[in-house]
Design a protein that fits this description.
With about 240 residues, this protein is of the alpha/beta class. It contains ten helices and eight strands. It has one domain: TIM Barrel, CATH 3.20.20.70. The site of 1,3-dihydroxyacetonephosphate has 14 residues, from strand 8.
């Protein structure tokens, strides 16, 4: 059984005091089971804070990006080895906000995933189509292209990733893919993963997930949990999603 995973992506939100309250609430309230896991991906400066708060708990933590390079003259970048020093279990790579605002290509995203795997960090590889691509009927072509580059780059390491399907039109818009719409894409992604000998990769859904819609999404056979943006900043809402 694949088990469910719910990951909070704080994006560029938070501050020391607010983070302390949020993390404390998660630690107090979260009861893990075999079937479900919880993690938060925080801004780089707060990795030490997350590590201190979560180290002796069942809640994982990670970063929202990682450099494809090991070290050197890459101003502003953070290497996978640095993330290891802060105990990261996960690194999000290829979030649509980085693809759109920072020009990240499919190839760079795959290289970042490889860099994370190289030090034992699980990359959460994000893929998803824009509204224009969906309306043009190109959803499957786009997500299969994005995933295909990762499959080709990672080879036998592929089973170690987590995949996140995040339709760009559903991120931060309050517009969620319906459970059936999401399941259709997840099933197609699952087929590609199965052909690539990685049938058990978790495929998360992301895009305006809330406590009110999480249970219906997570009930779909190929949806293994969620990558949660805005709603992960509210401890009780985030926990309600994780329990859904
Ligand atoms: P929202 O949940 O705020 O729509 O963001 C989703 C997301 O981008 C998670 O990575």
């Amino acid at each position: 059984m694949r088990g469910k995973l719910v990951v909070g992506n704080w994006k560029m939100n938070g501050g020391l005091a607010a983070n302390a309250r949020l993390l404390d609430r998660l630690v107090t309230e979260w009861q893990p089971t075999e079937a479900r896991s919880l993690a938060v991906c925080v801004p780089f400066p707060y990795l030490g804070q997350a590590q201190a708060a979560l180290a002796s708990t069942a809640i994982g933590w990670g970063a929202q990006d990682v450099s494809a390079h090991a070290s050197g003259a890459y101003t502003g970048e953070v290497s996978a080895a640095m993330l290891v020093e802060f105990g990261c279990r996960y690194a999000i790579v290829g979030h649509s906000e980085r693809r759109q605002m920072h020009g990240e290509t499919d190839g760079l995203v795959a290289a970042k995933a490889g860099a994370a795997l190289g030090v034992g960090i699980t990359p959460i590889v994000c893929i998803g189509e824009s509204l224009a691509e969906r309306e043009a009927g190109a959803t499957d072509v786009v997500v299969q292209r994005q995933l295909g580059v990762v499959i080709d780059a990672l080879g036998t390491e592929l089973p170690k990733i987590v995949l996140a399907y995040e339709p760009v039109w559903a991120i931060g818009t309050g517009r969620t893919a319906s459970p059936a719409q999401a399941q259709q894409v997840h099933a197609s992604l699952r087929s590609a993963l199965t052909r690539a000998r990685a049938p058990d990769v978790k495929v998360l859904y992301g895009g305006s997930v809330k406590a009110a819609n999480a249970a219906a999404l997570f009930a779909m056979s190929d949806i293994d949990g969620g990558l949660i943006g805005g709603a992960s900043l509210d401890a009780m809402e985030f926990l309600a999603i994780a329990r859904a």
